[in-house]
Design brief:
Length: about 325
């Protein structure tokens, strides 16, 4: 009788004290499950039966006595005409449903993204996310496969590219301007979360409870334009910005005393005359490109683009190209 008893599983449970196990296949040691066996599922666990590659019944936390009434799917798969009477073999997977926090995501290579202000640009980034398993069947099928013990480090390797792909698609769908993306990490992460969950829940059986953007990597020229945009916002507009730079040059003059100051003031007057002459030559009804306007005002083209983006300089955007009426430029300089 002792020998026969050892051929059957009477208690099935997973006692796990680790913090990095996501799923575990109970080792049956070639034993069969007997009628009346106890299945013990702890808090933050779910148990999933698999019979010959097909998903059977799923059990939540609690102690379950296995009998015909609570394994209807297995009964159907086994083709039991009179219920669960004979011992049987099946795989039992335990899945950890607790919240796993602080998982890193990041782009190995920047993605191409169309931006309303800068056109096609490359955007990179990284951050962290928290997740939990909400659909054991889908998770086992799409992520775990046949692994007997699936750990968090393997999950990170398996899912990193998938999470980045979902993030990239959500970012493209949301059409968030790069200027906003770089300035509002927390808000953007929260806004993208529903779009990301819409994919990962239905595709992988996971729910992302928190998605944080810690850094967005932008092309150098875009970062420089953003820095100039911030500087202009601080001083008001481009004309003020030009005066600010001139004044800054006066305070930072090295040596020369009154002679240096006089030379710098003279240079400022000459610049003003050149601007007036250029404006007169341009004509009142002509259209200027950002490069033309930059030459008229003696600033960089990126400064003009930033002023167009924030609306302080009026212009018309046709496709990816800006055009500025002479009258709009005159009004901007008088403001």
């Amino acid at each position: 009788m002792g020998y026969l008893k050892t051929q059957f599983l009477e208690i099935i449970q997973w006692q796990d004290d680790s913090r990095d196990s996501l799923s575990f296949r109970y080792p049956d040691e070639d034993k069969e499950i007997k009628r009346g066996a106890k299945l013990i599922v702890r808090e933050s666990q779910m148990a999933q039966f698999v019979y010959q590659g097909q998903f059977g019944d799923t059990f939540g936390p609690g102690t379950h006595t296995l009998k015909t009434d609570n394994i209807p799917i297995l009964s159907t798969l086994k083709g039991w005409k009179y219920g669960f009477e004979s011992p049987f073999k099946a795989d039992v997977y335990f899945v950890n449903t607790r919240l796993f926090t602080g998982n890193g995501w990041g782009m190995a290579d920047p993605i191409m993204m169309r931006d309303t202000d800068f056109g096609m640009i490359r955007v990179g980034g990284y951050g962290t996310y928290d997740f939990r398993i909400v659909d054991p069947r889908l998770f086992l099928k799409e992520v775990v496969g046949t692994d007997s013990h699936f750990f968090l480090d393997k999950f990170a390797k398996t899912m990193r590219a998938r999470i980045v792909s979902v993030y990239s698609e959500a970012l493209a769908t949301a059409k968030i301007p790069v200027l906003d993306l770089a300035a509002h990490y927390k808000e953007i992460g929260e806004a993208l979360l529903p779009l990301i969950n819409q994919v990962v829940i239905g595709k992988y059986g996971l729910e992302i409870s928190s998605f944080l953007i810690e850094c967005v990597n932008l092309p150098k020229e875009v970062e420089q334009a953003m820095d100039r945009h911030s500087s202009m916002a601080a001083v008001g507009n481009l004309s003020d910005y030009a005066r600010f730079q001139m004044a800054e040059g006066l305070t930072k003059g090295e040596g020369g005393g009154m002679a240096t100051t006089a030379a710098q003031l003279g240079a400022g007057l000459v610049m003003g005359q050149q601007m007036a002459q250029s404006m007169s030559a341009a004509g009142g009804t002509s259209l200027l490109s950002p490069a033309d306007a930059a030459k008229v005002m003696g600033v960089s083209e990126s400064d003009v683009l930033a002023a167009l983006s924030d609306g302080s300089l009026k212009g018309k955007k046709i496709g990816a190209t800006w055009r500025i009426a002479q009258q709009s430029l005159d009004e901007f300089l008088r403001s």
